[in-house]
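Subgroup meeting minutes
Present: P.N., E.W., G.H.
Scribe: E.W.

1. P.N. recapped why we're keeping a running log of single-chain structure predictions: easier to compare across weeks, and new members can see raw inputs and outputs side by side.
2. G.H. added today's entry (236 aa).
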Amino acid sequence: MTACRLEVENHAGSAPVDDHDVVVVTKSRLRVAVDAAFAETGDGLAQWPDPHLDRSPRNEEYSRLTNPGKWRIIGARADAWLIAIADLGLAEVERGAPVRWRREPGPMITGTDLIVPFAKGALTLVVARSQLATIADAGILLGVGDPVGCVTWVPGCGCDACDSGSQNELDELDAHILGVVSGAFRRLSAGNREITVIGEGGWSASNLSGRDEVDTILDDPKGWDEISGASWLNRP
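Output recorded in log:
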């Protein structure tokens, strides 16, 4: 029997009709599901604008974290992603799962959720809660693979000086999770050099000279160790 491709657009709980069907969830449908879940998980949590739009940070702001609890909105957005991913049948979400870290992460980890995709060859995702000042679950750290390699943590700092508003950090979280889920994420390393790709045109690099060198390596990563995986959006 020829495999059938079903594009899920209307019902978050849609599932294959039989073992030969392939469910294809579009990125736009996934985003809609995340936003809908966030309306509930983020209820009662306030967003805020960039406090430095018209000025530079003051010196005293670099050592100050006025309201660390406000960053719980990042965890609420992460929860919305987990709900949407599970409801769309893309992965199994294991709350409070133990994980092995490739290297001990910088932030203090207070809890980990393991998301195991159903698509063959896709990377597992870890969403970890991290402590920020006195708040045990104010930050989010993302990791991939087994053992888990750290991808990023949000917020990057959390101090008043580095605060660029909630939307910037929410967008950062979205971009990294979508990069893993869509299969666009790549982590390449060679010695102390590293490249991380999170999507079309989105990358960061350390100990490399610039975009031309990065593009050359991405086109031909021979000699580099690479962590990447298939899209979660095409699942059996």
